[in-house]
Amino acid sequence: MPDEIAAIRTAILEDAPADVIGALPLPATFRAAVVRADEQEMFAGIPSEEKDPRKSTHIDEVPLPELAPDEAYVAVMASAINFNTVWTSIFEPLPTFQFLKRLGKESVWGARHDLPYHVMGSDAAGVVLRVGSAVRNWKPGDKVTVHCNYVDDQDPSAHDDSMMASNQRIWGFESNFGGLAEISVVKANQLMPKPAHLTWEESACNALCNSTSYRMIVSKNGSHMTQGQTVLIWGATGGIGAYAVQYVLNGGGTPVGVVSSPERASLLQELGCEHVIDRRAEGYKFWKDDNTQDPSEWRRFGKQIRELTGKDPDIVFEHPGRSTMGASVFVAKRGGMIITCAATSGFNIEYDNRYLWMNLKTLKGCHFANDREAWEANRLISEARIHPTLSMVFDLVHTADAAYEVHHNLGEGKYGVLCLAPEEGLGVTDPRTREAHIDAITLFRRYA
Ligand code: NAP
């Protein structure tokens, strides 16, 4: 570890004052989890399940890029694995180097991103080391989390709902210098206050999934759930699903959570979800073969939901994609909404459109969150109204092992990654709030 990185880590662990942190020398290089451009064809012709992040992910020493006026360097204490870490590391659906090239053409500062390596990661918690000359609201020493909405604030299309911006990107996926590193480069608008009652790794695991679920469930830009509505949630103990369950419960709705094991079913019940469907135990098979769906299985699924809740779901929280979309469109109530942000099992989806139009249902696309939504979602975490779903913690050098597990659906909730934090459990500055909510904060840890 270079001396500068060691000094940064020591200063943060000793809670050094802002002026000391701001005066620390910056390193010329730092360690980061990267994929390499010259390896982007390494999995060509291999089925998706066999593409192994452990072969493509490297922990490399990379140069510290120059800081743009609207950016900050963040010393990353912890980061997290997202499914986009998996996509990046298996070069699907596209190698991310294409995104970096496009960003590289946009501006002089954008050109820094077009490199033969891609520093991955779309979540982080840490401490601001330096800010660019145009940054007003943040200073060295600030403890922060980072959301991944990367927008150009000089683009007029970014000023109603910034997710509608024509060049909106996801930091660490469609930009370089992401969070799975010792130092990250972020735009100042991505910074949010770190929840004081959480550790570094608990703080780092929320922003991407929590904000996505907030927009999908709570925001008027998503399904805008109201009290008493029933929401079917696929993957209800997974990265986005477990936050969705919490939002439905907080908003006075009734979640129906789908999982695939008895352990996940009891975790879900402990999370407060009364209505649980174990899709594996029930043996649902929505596809007879690769090309033919089975509507009788949709009906069986819908019947089970009705038996559990007495009605059809007002909202379906959809992300598995090809394997479930036919069933999702079928089971939503007349006039209901299927809201989707992904297609993990395949993006060429099929559903019977008669059930959509004849029953006046809405199929709505949704993607991450604008700044305001991300801040609201972070506020709810900070006020301990929504809790982190951290289940496992890895060191930066084991990033690829963590991505492998997420790729193969082996764990629950979120996987944290320690970057500069030497161990788990550090960074809490509000022990009282923590103590009051400790069972909820550590629920997913206990099931890991
Ligand atoms: P995750 O932690 O891996 O959880 C996904 C869950 O989906 C799993 O726990 C699994 O639950 C369930 N699942 C997987 N395959 C399934 C299938 N074939 N049928 C039914 N259920 C299945 O992933 P995540 O972080 O929740 O992300 C889920 C998807 O959303 C990914 O594709 C990710 O890229 C995407 N995403 C998009 C955005 C956005 O802004 N657009 C943001 C976050 C995530 P069980 O096996 O227990 O049923």
Give a quick summary of the entry.
This protein has 448 residues and is an alpha/beta fold.
Structure write-up:
The chain is α/β, with parallel strands linked by helices and 448 residues long. The chain folds into two domains: 284 residues, Alpha-Beta Complex (Quinone Oxidoreductase, Chain A, domain 1), CATH 3.90.180; 143 residues, NAD(P)-binding Rossmann-like Domain (Rossmann fold). The protein has 18 helices and 20 strands. Helix 4 packs across helix 15. The longest helix is centred in the last third of the chain and has 15 residues. The radius of gyration is 21 Å and the shape is globular. NADP nicotinamide-adenine-dinucleotide phosphate (NAP) binds next to helix 4, helix 7 and strand 12.
Kindly report how far apart the N and C termini lie: 31 Å
Shape category: globular
* Overall pLDDT confidence: 97
The rounded Rg comes to: 21 Å
What are the distinct ligands in this entry?
Answer: NADP nicotinamide-adenine-dinucleotide phosphate
> Which fold name is given in CATH as the topology of the largest domain?
Quinone Oxidoreductase, Chain A, domain 1
Helix percent band: 25-40%
Number of domains: 2
Which percent range describes the beta-strand content? 15-25%
